[in-house]
Write a structure and sequence with these properties.
By secondary structure, the protein is mainly beta. The protein has no helices and 11 strands. The strands form 2 sheets. Strands 2, 4, 5, 6, 9, 10 and 11 form a 7-stranded mixed beta sheet that branches. It has a 4-stranded antiparallel beta sheet with strand order 1-3-8-7, with no helix packed on it.
Amino acid sequence: QAQLVESGGGLVQAGGSLTLSCAASGRTFSTYAMGWFRQAPGQEREFVSAISRRGISTYYADSVKGRFTISRDNAKNTVYLQLNSLKPEDTAFYYCAAAGPRAADWSRSNEYDYWGQGTQVTVSS
């Protein structure tokens, strides 16, 4: 069982940057693909980015492609999301999640087994 704890959220002006971190407990971190999702008030949770178990493959939603970068450090049991060129529409609660080896589509939230509590990102205009 994995426990995930996000950090790094905050308030930033449009055009600014933030780095989100997600620390995982347990010794099986490298067996999980990791994803980031976000949810704005009144909206459904949406896929942001995902990274494969060894970090070789990465995936992004079209809305963040070219601005956000996902990475992971399996030695530190941590996955990161670098957010650059932030826009007010990026304002949301950001969640990291872990998907087991049976996950088929990392863009779907129901493929993930474990979730963190989330961290708030607010982008002012």
